[in-house]
Specification:
The chain is α+β, with helices and mostly antiparallel strands. The protein has 4 domains: 2-131; 136-193, no CATH class; 219-325 and 427-502, no CATH class; 332-416, no CATH class. 46% of the residues lie in helices and 10% in strands. It contains 16 helices and 8 strands. It has helices spanning 2-12, 16-40, 47-79, 83-90, 93-96, 104-131, 134-139, 142-153, 163-166, 171-189, 332-341, 352-361, 367-385, 387-392, 394-411, 483-502, and strands at residues 223-231, 239-247, 269-273, 281-287, 293-298, 313-315, 443-444, 459-466.
Length: 503
C-alpha cells in the first residue's frame, strides 16, 4: 500500500509546482496530527502554537491541494498531450487499467479526496473552536489585547467567553466577526491600531441578547445592602464605612421604580450624546403609557447643538451604566482600599494607605520604571521615617511593595497608553459622571422640571464615611452639626423599608 502511495505521489509530482503541492499537503497533514496529539496529552497549550496548528497548517494544506491540479494543468500545456497520454506516461499499465471499481489511480484519488474532506472539516471545526476560546482572544495579539486579557481574568465575568458578547449567534454574525478579526490581526501585525483601544465598542451584541441570558430584569426585586470600606490617610490607615441600601427594583413589585427601572421591558429610555463616548448627554426621553415620549434637554447645550448632532441616539440598556463590567480597570484609591480590606496589606505598617496610593499614582515613564519606582518609594519613605524601625519592618514593607506592584501591573499599561482613569466607569457616581450624566439640574423638560437627582432616589444611606457601619440608624446627637441630615436619612430608610414590606 505504501509503495502504491509512493508511486502515486511520484506520478503527480510532474514539476516543481506539483512537488511543492505534495510537500505542503504532506507536511501540513503530519504537522497538524502531531501538534493536535501533543495538545490532547497536555504537552502544548499556547495560543501561538494554536495559530500554527489551526491556521498555518490548514492554510498550507489547502494551498498544496490547489498547487497539484495547477501543476498538472501546466504540465499538460507544456507537453501538448491529453490527460490520457500523460497518465500512460506517469503510471504503470496496472495502475490505470480499468477494473470493476475503476482504476487504481482513480481509487487512490477517491480515497485521498475523502481523507482531504474529512481533514479539512475536522481542521475547520477545531479552528473555529480554537478561535472562540478566550485564551486565543487575549494572548494571540498580546501587545494589543494584553491589558484587556489581564482585566478580564480578574473580572466577575472571567468564565464568560469573549465570543458570547463580541460575536453573536448565527452564521452572518460569525462570518462578520471572523472577517473583522482577520482585519484586526493584519492591523496588529502592522502596528496600525489605536492606543488605547477606543470605547465604547460598537460591535457588541445587544445586551438583551447577552446580559439577560443570566441577568433578567424581571427578577430584580427589592434592595441590596452593600458596605464600602475606605481607609484614611493617617498613620493607622483608619477604616471608615459607607453603607448603602441600593434600590435595585425595576418597579414591578414595589410600584416605585428602582435603579433597574431604566431597563424594565415596559420602559423605553432613549438619549442622544455628544460624540460617541456617551458621557455628555444632549437630551433624554422616555416613553409614556400612551406611546408618546417625554423629553428632557440639557439646558447648557440647548443653544450649542442642532439636530445634526443627534447622530448618536441610543436606547438605554445594561452597558450604559455597566460599561466596565468585564474589562475592569480599578480606581487607584479603591484598589488600595480593597487590598487592605482583604488582608493582603498589613495595616499596622505606618501610613501604608497613603504611601501605597502615592507610589502607584506617581508619573513613571514605563512599566518597568513604575515597578522599580514603587519599590524605591516604599523603602525610601520608611528609611526616612525611622531607619531602625524600617529595618524591622522589611518583610511587611516587601509584602506591601509586591501588592502595590500587582495593582500597578493590572491597571497601568504604558505601551497601550492606559493610565489611571483612562476608561471611565459609569456604574454609580463615585468619580466619573455615571448617573449624573442624566440626573443633574441642567437636564429639564419644557416646563423646567428636572430629572430627579436626590441622593435617596436610588439608595438609602445608612452610613457615609463613618466609624460605624450603621451610624445613621442610631439616635443622632442633637449637638452634632449633621443632626438633621442623620435624622432625615434614618427616617427615609425606615419609611422605604415599611413601604417595601407592604408590597
Amino acid at each position: 500500500m505504501f509503495q502504491k502511495y509512493r508511486n502515486f505521489i511520484r506520478g503527480i509530482s510532474v514539476n516543481r509546482i506539483g512537488q511543492a503541492g505534495v510537500i505542503f499537503t504532506t507536511t501540513a497533514f503530519a504537522g497538524f496530527l502531531f501538534f493536535e496529539f501533543l495538545r490532547l496529552i497536555g504537552v502544548l497549550d499556547n495560543a501561538y502554537i494554536g495559530l500554527i496548528t489551526y491556521m498555518l497548517f490548514p492554510a498550507m494544506f489547502l494551498m498544496g491541494l490547489a498547487l497539484m491540479p495547477l501543476a498538472w494543468y501546466r504540465y499538460s500545456k507544456q507537453q501538448k498531450k491529453s490527460t490520457r497520454e500523460l497518465l500512460n506516461e506517469r503510471f504503470d499499465d496496472g495502475d490505470i487499467r480499468e477494473g470493476f471499481f475503476g482504476s487504481r489511480v482513480f481509487l487512490i484519488i477517491l480515497i485521498l479526496t475523502m481523507v482531504n474532506v474529512l481533514f479539512i472539516a475536522g481542521a475547520g471545526f477545531r479552528t473555529m473552536k480554537f478561535m472562540d476560546e478566550p485564551k486565543f482572544c487575549g494572548t494571540a495579539c498580546h501587545s494589543v489585547m494584553g491589558p484587556e486579557w489581564t482585566a478580564y481574568q480578574q473580572s466577575p465575568h472571567s468564565r464568560v467567553k469573549c465570543v458570547e458578547c463580541h460575536v453573536g449567534q448565527g452564521v452572518d454574525a460569525v462570518v462578520s466577526a471572523k472577517l473583522n478579526g482577520l482585519r484586526q490581526m493584519a492591523l496588529a501585525m502592522l502596528s496600525d491600531y489605536e492606543r488605547p483601544i477606543p470605547t465604547p465598542v460598537h460591535q457588541l451584541r445587544p445586551s438583551r441578547e447577552t446580559c439577560e441570558q443570566c441577568h433578567w430584569p424581571k427578577k430584580f426585586y427589592g434592595s441590596r445592602l452593600i458596605t464600602r470600606i475606605h481607609y484614611k490617610m493617617d498613620r493607622g490607615s483608619t477604616p471608615r464605612y459607607t453603607t448603602l441600601q441600593l434600590k435595585i427594583d425595576t418597579g414591578r413589585s414595589a410600584g416605585n421604580g428602582g435603579i433597574h427601572w431604566h431597563v424594565a421591558t415596559e420602559n423605553e429610555v432613549r438619549y442622544a450624546s455628544v460624540g460617541d463616548k456617551r458621557e455628555e448627554i444632549i437630551w433624554v426621553d422616555w416613553r409614556q403609557p400612551d406611546g408618546t415620549y417625554h423629553r428632557f434637554e440639557n439646558t447648557r447645550l440647548r443653544d450649542k447643538t442642532t439636530e445634526a448632532d443627534y447622530t448618536h441616539v441610543r436606547n438605554m440598556d445594561c452597558v450604559d451604566c455597566h460599561n466596565r463590567v468585564t474589562h475592569v480597570y480599578e480606581d487607584a484609591e479603591s484598589a488600595v482600599d480593597d487590598r487592605i480590606q482583604r488582608g493582603l496589606v498589613d495595616r499596622s505598617l505606618p501610613f501604608v494607605k497613603r504611601e501605597m496610593l502615592a507610589a502607584i499614582t506617581a508619573n513613571y515613564s514605563s512599566d518597568e520604571a513604575g515597578l522599580q519606582g514603587i519599590r524605591n518609594h516604599f523603602f525610601g519613605f520608611y528609611q526616612a521615617l525611622d531607619a531602625v524601625q524600617g529595618a524591622r519592618l522589611t518583610d511587611r514593607i516587601e509584602n506591601a511593595v509586591t501588592v502595590a506592584q500587582d495593582i500597578y501591573k493590572r491597571n497601568i499599561h504604558h505601551h497601550m497608553r492606559i493610565d489611571w482613569n483612562t476608561y471611565p466607569n459609569h456604574l454609580g457616581h463615585q468619580h466619573d459622571g455615571g448617573c449624573f450624566r442624566c440626573h443633574n439640574p441642567n437636564i429639564r423638560d419644557k416646563q423646567g422640571k428636572m430629572i430627579r437627582h436626590e441622593c435617596t432616589l436610588c439608595h438609602s444611606i445608612l452610613a457615609y464615611d463613618e466609624a460605624n457601619r450603621f451610624q445613621y440608624l442610631f439616635q443622632p446627637d442633637k449637638k452634632n452639626p449633621n443632626y438633621k441630615m442623620h435624622l432625615f436619612l434614618r427616617d427615609e430608610f425606615l419609611h422605604s423599608k415599611v413601604q417595601a414590606d407592604k408590597n
